[in-house]
Amino acid sequence: MKMRIAKVTVAAALLFTLAASLAAPCAIAQAQRKVIIDQDGRGPATTDQQSMMLLIQSPDTQVLGLTIVSGDQWRDEELAHTLRMLEIIGRTDIPVVPGAVYPLLNNAQEIQRWEKLYGKVEYKGAWNPPSAGQRAHGPFEVPPLPEGAPAAKPASEDAAHFLVRMVHQYPHEVTLVALGPLTDLALATAIDSEFPLLAKELVIMGGSISPAWDSELHETPSRREFNFWFDPEAARIVLRARWPRITVTTVDISVKTRLTRAMIAQIGQAQTPAAQYVAKWASEGFMWDELAAAAWLDPSIITEQKQFYMDINVDHSAGYGDTLVWKPGNQPGLGERQVNVNWELNQEKFYRLFVDLISRPTPAAKPAPQ
Fold this sequence. Notes:
Elements: H1 2-31, E1 33-39, H2 47-57, E2 61-68, H3 75-89, E3 96-98, H4 108-118, H5 159-169, E4 174-178, H6 183-191, H7 195-198, E5 201-205, H8 226-230, H9 232-239, E6 246-249, H10 251-254, H11 261-268, H12 273-281, H13 288-297, E7 302-312, E8 323-326, E9 337-345, H14 347-359
Parallel strand pairs: 1-2, 1-4, 2-3, 4-5, 5-6, 6-9
Antiparallel strand pairs: 7-8, 7-9
Helix pairs in contact: 2-13, 5-6, 6-9, 11-12, 11-14
């Protein structure tokens, strides 16, 4: 009788262990943080692509999709660069969803008028004239890509409806990481007023408060930042929406970072596809979007945050597109909301995380959202 009880006990223990081992992948999958990256995906291997890769390379995330909006380049060229990046690192399971081609109101003619009245804008993204050796092209033309043309195709759904659908499918679970102009999020908010409330949080790279610029590199007014300036009306709509939480990485902290040749060479020592992509195409520069992504992955990178009420100047005057901030208690109360602004960072910790994640083998494909 004792032997029979012992055997039953052992068998039960084995069954429990087996069940736990089978359930472990499910528990890991459930623990992964769901994220959608809204980006103006200039490429190859720019801050835009590298920030998306950083989140894809993390074993702790489930990237539900990449929504692509015009900004640094026109949307269709950015889609091609992003699709090609995913092919190179082996993650074509991630949907690449086309977003807005144009800002809500801002346009090339408006900027030309502004420049005649108030002076030249140094960087205009998709509206910039072509560099030497390049030719101008329209919004729907994709020039030859140095990294090669992708075979993969973008999703047939548009970004705004994809964003709305995902937060309804996973209510209060999806972090939206917005690293380009905010047109897609503004359109999603217009489609569904519940969209911001159903998100878990919003992470933004954008805005400028009082950065310590290197005057040899940048001579723009301190409150003008490209992502907000490209579509100021969209930025205002998004910043005033009812998000559970907003975290903003502004120019002020981004200019304290630098991707160096030494870091690129260190990454290049790894023979993984992601590392070789960065080693071949990356160049030195500020790590604008990478910092915003890394700070969400590991908040301990940020050693100081500040709270401001933030809004955007949408007057079509000298301050069009400028970032407006107030300390709590000083805000005018016209719809602006409080945001958490990343202010100081542990640079070495950030650099280590970036080099480590980009050098790793890319995590295997995860089940696609339905």
